[in-house]
Amino acid sequence: MIRIGDAPRVRRLLIGAALVLTALFLLLPLVAIFAQALMSGIDVYWQNLSDDYTLAAIGLTLLVAVITVPVNLVFGVFLAWLVTRFDFPGRRLLQTLIDIPFAVSPVVAGLVYLLLYGRNGWLGGWLDAHDIQIMFAWPGIVLVTLFVTCPFVARELIPLMQAQGSREEEAAVTLGASGWTIFRRVTLPNIRHALLYGVILTNARAVGEFGAVSVVAGAIRGETNTLPLQVEQLYQDYNTVGAFTSASLLALLALLTLAAKAALEWRAARRETAT
Amino acid sequence: MSIRISQIEKTYGYQGRGRTRALEPIDLDIHDGELIGLLGPSGSGKTTLLRIVAGLEQADSGSIHFGDRDVTRVHVRDRRIGFVFQHYALFRHMSVFDNVAFGLTAMPRSQRPSSGEIRSRVMQLLEMVRLQDFAERFPAQLSGGQQQRVSLARALALKPDVLLLDEPFGALDAKVRQELRRWLRHLHEELHFTSLFVTHDQEEALELSDRVVVMSNGRIEQIATPDTLYRQPANRFVFEFLGDVNRIEGDIEKEVLTCGNARVAVPGIENGRQELLLRPHEVCLDEQPSTRAHLPVSVTAVVPVGAEVRLELEADWLGEPWLATISHADFERLAITRGKRLFAQPSRLHRFDTSRPQTLAPLSAS
Question: Is residue B108 part of a domain?
């Protein structure tokens, strides 16, 4: 059988092109981030990093992630369970609705939240009367991040749970297991790889979200700036090194995330071959 | 534990669009210790009925009793049933041991046996299914037949009142299926649980069951012992479903059916157009026509399988070819080869188009 690119020369050419492009478009920018951040030496890097505003941004970003990830984890599992284990009118509609945050531009999502919860928004008057501030404060940032990241876990789980079917759970229930026991001992072990992967993706997006957050955050330095916003603001201030220092943190988080994902995939592959 | 199913009814789908009637009101009594086969083509409602008995699905109306206990509204987990799934449904991330132990370890702490008791019970069950050496393996490392045995051991671990099996051997190859069937029969005689199993394989139903329930289109067609079922089918559906069927259709005048150049005497039958049926083993073959039957056929295929020889017969007067099974002795006596012309002699004919099924046995062998 002859495949396209079977000739050694063509093959070498194709592989070479792929490597060059990867280096050019993916690796080089990554290297550039760290190079720029460390341009003026490690001392300046540390100094930029321990800047109060940057530390506040790091803290806020972590807070957003710490709230978003567990909430969407529970929500995603619940949604996937509902959609794959029960048949009810509107099931397909629900499956389509899950994708809205993917389909809509994050900026639009931010604007919608502003419209809902902002001072002049539909709920704004009531919130104002009760002295609850959501927009231009951390609750607003958390809310839009929840919105933007909510499909990741469910989207990872639904195809898997559909493929696995509910036979094992049915077997467990005929053996007298309670709902929680079934979930803990049968469902969860079967979906844990996909679940972790969904969590990693959710976390990556929660930490890195810019568009939606920038609309609802109001860019108050040291208060409502998350790391991506901080990067942008420092850059606007012509503080290139500072901007890249924060950017390097985000890049580092991304690398850690990718490493975690690779490790998971490697473990899953090893498990497959073991059985 | 006896099972009494009364007026169980089920319709799938929501109001209006896509509604299908899965079960007409069904009545069925299963005695204590009986092994009952639910036999029917796919879509006949047999699996739905089994799942309703298990409690995995809810009937729209009707009731189910296990002994004196009304379990209609009882949740699956409290029904004390064992369920064996077609594709085993073993917990893929647990060892064989943990699979079998699941029901015991999932009990509330207050009722749960000690881990030592669980261990000995599980090992005893694994011994029963002859898998004691496989306790630490994972399901993916076992063959289909072994997986199904694990699944059986798991279902029996809680000593259920009722064992329900959904096409238990459907996914296995013929030889393993034979072996497991015999083994299940044996196990049933030994432990004496009441069980209900679903199958679309008539041979399996006839071989395993004390009584067979034949279903089609959500209805019970007949409930009978395998013997009765085969000899006295209640209607045409049962007759056709239980084996291969040959057809002859023609005009009857003075107790003789004529169809093209073929004719056969059928005593006691009224005039008019009639369709008669017969099984492959009810077709005898000879080199000469008899006074009672003149049915010229030619052999188009010869398949020697096991104890008998299967032949395919064709003729101008036949709409579709007949199947005949004859003994090796006859096969040799008549020196049958492909293309050989012979004469068929029905030893028995069946008619189902009147309200009462009729078996007509008019012909002596010569």
Answer: yes
pLDDT at B366: 36
- A89 to chain B: nearest residue by CA? B14
CA B69 to centroid of chain Cα atoms:
29
pLDDT along chain A (275 residues), means of 10: 73 93 93 90 89 91 95 95 89 90 91 86 84 87 94 94 92 93 92 90 92 87 88 90 91 88 82 61
Q: What are A160-163's contacts with CB under 8 Å, separation 24+?
A: A160/A191, A160/A194, A161/A80, A161/A81, A161/A84, A161/A85, A161/A191, A162/A84
Give CA–CA dist A106/B159, Å, rounded: 57
- Both structure tokens of A239: 């503080």
pLDDT in tens, A37-80: 888 888 889 988 888 899 999 999 999 999 999 999 999 999 99
Instruction: Provide the 3-class DSSP secondary structure of residue B99.
Output: helix
The dihedral built from the CA positions of residue B11, B12, B14 and B19, taken in this order, carries a sign that is negative
**Sign of the C-alpha dihedral computed for residues A223, A225, A230 and A232 taken in this order:** negative
Enter the ipTM.
0.81
Residue B155: domain span: 3-241
Alpha carbon dihedral A154, A156, A158, A164, in 10-degree steps, equals -140
Closest Cα of chain A to B199: distance in Å? Answer: 18
Distance CA A254, CA A257 (A): 5
CA distances in angstroms from A261 to A73, A197, A203, B1, B158, listed in the order given: 17, 7, 12, 53, 41
Q: How far is CA B337 from CA A189, B6, B294, B311, in A?
A: 61, 55, 21, 10
Residue B327: which CATH number?
2.40.50.100
CB contact under 8 A, A174 and B93: no
Looking at the structure of chain B, the number of domains it has is 2
What is the spatial distance between Cα A227 and Cα A208, in angstroms, rounded to a whole number? 8
Q: Degrees (nearest 5) of the Cα angle B335, B340, B345?
A: 85
Q: Which residues contact A202 (CB under 8 A, 6 or more apart)?
A: A68, A69, A72, A73, A76, A149, A152, A153
* Residues of chain B found within 8 Å of residue A181, distances taken between Cβ atoms: 106
Can you name the CATH fold of A40-274? MetI-like fold (1.10.3720)
Are B154 and B222 in the same domain? yes
Mutate to test the interface with B, among A88, A91, A174 (most CBs of B within 10 A): A174
Q: Which of B17, B20, B76, B91 to mutate to test the interface with A (most CBs of A within 10 A)?
A: B91
The span from the CA of B123 to the CA of B135, in Å, is 8
